[in-house]
Structure formats: structure tokens, C-alpha cells
Design a protein that fits this description.
Layout: E1 9-13, H1 16-19, E2 46-47, H2 65-79, E3 83-87, H3 90-93, H4 104-119, E4 123-129, H5 135-141, H6 148-164, E5 170-174, H7 185-188, E6 198-199, H8 207-231, E7 236-238, E8 241-242, E9 246-248, H9 253-276, H10 283-289, H11 300-306, E10 312-315, E11 320-322, E12 330-331, E13 338-339, H12 355-369, E14 373-377, H13 395-414, E15 418-421, E16 444-446, E17 458-460, H14 462-472
Parallel strand pairs: 1-3, 1-15, 3-4, 4-5, 5-7, 8-10, 9-11, 10-14, 14-15
Antiparallel strand pairs: 2-6, 12-13, 16-17
Length: 478
Amino acid sequence: MAVFKKDFLWGGATAANQYEGGWNLDGKGDSISDHLTVGSHKVPRQLTRTIKEGTLYPSQEATDFYHHYKEDIALFAEMGFKVFRLSINWTRIFPTGMEEEPNEAGLAFYDKVFDELHKYNIEPLVTISHYEIPYALVDKYNGWESREVIDLFFRYAVTLFKRYNGKVKYWLTFNEINAAIMPFGAVLGTGTVKGYEGPNTEIPDKKQERFQALHHQLVASALVVKYAHEHYPDFMMGNMICYLLSYALTCNPDDILANQKSMEILNYYCGDVQVRGEYPYFAKRYWEENDIHIEMKHGDDEILREGTIDFYTFSYYMTNCTSTDPNQKQTAGNIIGGAKNPYLKASDWGWQVDPQGLRIGLNELYARYGLPMMVVENGLGAYDKIEKDGSINDDYRIDYLKDHIAAMREAVKDGVDLLGYTPWGCIDLVSASTGEMAKRYGFIYVDKYDDGTGDLSRRRKKSFEWYKNVIASNGEEL
């Protein structure tokens, strides 16, 4: 008997700032991602206030979907994609974010993309804002710290709804909105880095700014969802959370409590607002203990209540452990690290591989929220080698994804309502955290390298045929 629904949405996920390129073409303005230089997992990316000659900014060309979208979508169709998660570049529609009228050339580009997807019966899943706030809004307003940006975002989102009604059904408001809870999120998440120049790992930790900015994002998200529900009842409106599952390292009650508190703030603070329509009970104490004073305008509570989402989506890559012992060995992770889990192996980048955690997470989230779920990012960043015969034998990626799909299958058997699965970087793209090309995720290899060279040609990896078979069998054959 089939486990996944017959209309299960198999596909892949990308983001404009890491994939699209064409950063200054056809009227596009520059986003904060266009101001981040190349780095590595040992050398941090630099944020520069101006675009400097002779400096490599990998997001500016990325892997050039802008000029390869027909070829790439044909490859996705060959794999059998039912859905393709992409984001829209805010600055392609409103170059500074402050224009009264949208840039027609930008709107027309996404028309062509959506038409191409529909040609192959692929459903677009669109993230409205994915780590690419217009840099002009960083410069003028300190990004999302200012309430002014709520109205600018609302105008942008409504423009998209009006233009793409009938072409896009599934929408996500913000990518990994909870990134703002962590210092890293000040750059790509909230853009609260006005005047800052330097390593993206050394942004001053200004919690007050970030949490105020996050409040504005949550209000903006709710306003947009409420508007969509009122004007476009066919739309399915979702959120997107960076799900950072962690375990207590030991059964020491101190570790258990520390992990519980960490999980609440990192994973449930934003989700509770977007699903339940109000800040969770634990927020108040966290604000008090961290000297955070959220300025809420009259009506914000009502907006949050009325703008709750229809389905819940999240990214899942790895897990960490929480320990109150400062001498415990630490390990890296997606956005945040933690104590090393002695039972898990790690990727080349030190991220601990934990397929079982995906089942645990799906059950935890479904029990908490009771909404249809979608895993919209999951994957293994790894070094890929081209063999002499031109093949790329990425069995390590196949093993990772196979184990995670098997975990999803068990979660569905547990009773979780799972809508779809879009592994991250289904085609190679630029790493958001490090700016590298060497850290590859895709089923499709793109000839592009960390020094900016490469002819951008595409070739199928071994995982391409494997995933094609997974989709054809609706997840029965792994």
C-alpha cells in the first residue's frame, strides 16, 4: 500500500539570491546578498557597503538561472518534478524597495518562468522573500527594524499576487524567518546592519534590533496572509522555519531544561505566532531576561490573530545537542552549532547527519500545530568529483536523501499529514553561509567554481536518475 499521497508534491528547492544571477540586468537593484563576498567554511564572507571592483560577489551571477531557466526547468521535468520551490528577487520587482510602481521587466521574467513550469505541469512554490532585502532599505531604514518596511513589503507582495494569480497557488512569506533570533540573521534575515562593513560572522549582537525587526516581519507576514485569504481564496499560504532540532546531551535535568528553552525560542517562537496567531507564553520571560522591549502598535495583536497560515513548511539538515557543561566538544551546523552527538556522523562541513531526527521533528511539529506539513529544504552539501568519463557518482548524497525520505515515510505512517518534499539546491547553487560553490547539493552539476570561473554548463549526477526513480515510484523505491 502506498505511503505517500498519490498527489504528493515531489520536487526541489532554490533561492533567487543563490541561483538566479542577472543581478544588475533589466532594471534589477542590488539586494543585501549582492553585497556579500565569496568565503569558505574557514574564511568568512565580507559584507561591503559598496560593490568593489575586482571583488567576487558570488550571488551576482550565482549559477545563472536568469539565462538558463528553460534548460533547467526541462531537467526538473525530466526528473518528474511535481513542484519547484523558487523565490522572487524583491529588487527585480522594486529595485530599491521604495518605488511606487514595479519594474515591468522583472515581472515579465517570472511570468516566463511560471509559464515554462506549467508547460511541464510543475507547480511553483514561491517564497516571497528569501534572504534578499533591497540594500537600499538596509541603508535607509536599518532594514526591518523600521515599521516603514512593512508597508513596502506589503506593496511588493500584493503586486505579486495580482500579477501571478492563476499561475501560483502555493506561497511562503519569509524564508527561515526564525533566523532573526540568531546573530547570523541580522544580515540575510532582517538586514539590521546599517553602516556595517566587515565579516558576516562578526556582526554586533543587537538582540533588541533583531527582535523588533522580527516583530515587523511577523506583522508583515500576517498582513499578507490575511490579504491573500480575503482576495485570493484559492491561494495556500505557508510559513518557512529553519527547524533546528536539538537533544539534551545527557539526562541531567539541567541539560533537559536548557534544551527545552532552546527549542522553544529557536523553533517555536515564530511558528507559534504564525500558526496560533499570538506570541507564546514563554516569550515574555525571554524578553525580560534579554532586555528586549518589543514596540507593538495598536492593532498588531489583531493582525497576528487574523493572518495565520494554511500549511507549515521547514528546512531540516542536521541536529545538535544541548549541554550545560562548557567543556563538551562542540560541532558546526546550519546557522547554529551545539554539543557533539556521539551517536552521529557528520558531513564534510561538520553538520551531523540525523535522518531519524526528521521523523522526530515531523511528529513534534504536527502534534503542536496540526497543520499540513512540507519539508522544503533538506540535503547534503558535499564535494563532488567529476570522473574521467564525465560521471559524478554522488552515492553519499543518495544515501543521505534515501535515509531522510525513509524517515518521512515513517512519519506519514505515524499519522503526519505531509504534502510534499523539495530537497535543497536540486541544482548546484551558491552557499548562503559561505558563498562557496564547492559545497554542492544538487542532482544537477553546474560548471562554476569558487574563483568565479566556469562555463555554467549543466550535467546530471548519479543522484539525478536515482531521484527520478524515487518520484516515479512515489517514494516506494529508494
